Amino acid sequence: MATTSVSTPIPAGVSVQHTLQALHNHELMIRTLCPSLITYSLESGDPASTATYSVTDKKPIGQTTYKLTLTNTPYGIKSLVQAKPPTGILTIAGNWCISNGSLREDVEIEGNFMMKKMAKGNVERTHPQQHSLLLQQATA
To answer: Less crowded by CB within 10 Å, the N or C end of the chain?
Structure first.
């Protein structure tokens, strides 16, 4: 298993309540997590608590469809990506929470060696920007 964490200070003027509301907004989370989103649909569950979505996204290797489960928690949201790329199964579990004035995301990645390395690098490269976009929406 590969692990990584991303932490972004919550800007002055952005309340914890607004940040939590942004995290619990599943449509906003999907659009933030999937910047090249093509389409998504609710597969099961309730967006007010836990829901699983089918997401189609454009990736450098082409279009891909995967399952994304979002679970609201009292302090944030848990995300679970279950993908089946041509190179094997990839699972990315994220725990987004508000802690000590920051938006923190702890990520666990399961897959073969190459998939873990590539996914970890992608998370570390792209998720700080995703945090910033989400926090911008929390002020809107």
So the answer is: C
